[in-house]
Fold this protein.
Amino acid sequence: MRGKGLDNVLLVRDYNLMTWLGANSFRTSHYPYAEETLLMADQEGFMVIDESPACSLDGFDVILLEEHKAMLQEMVLRDKNHPSVIMWSLANEPRTDKPEAEDYF
């Protein structure tokens, strides 16, 4: 039985499967992945879209937005030196259809 924590054996298996499929990129959907995942992406030549842990950013109150900005800053500071990271994803399914979103995004 394997849990949700980092498992290097499964990490190697996942990269081997992606390589076998002909993939060369992936998105860390819904949250930033463990740094070991990015280290392997650097070594294996994968491109990564690094995503913040914001999902369906629905509210636009000041406290939530400040927390979101802090999470983005933390993610960028942690991952900025990984050559595999080619893009930052601000949120999964952000509610950009809301009028308040225009000023924020």
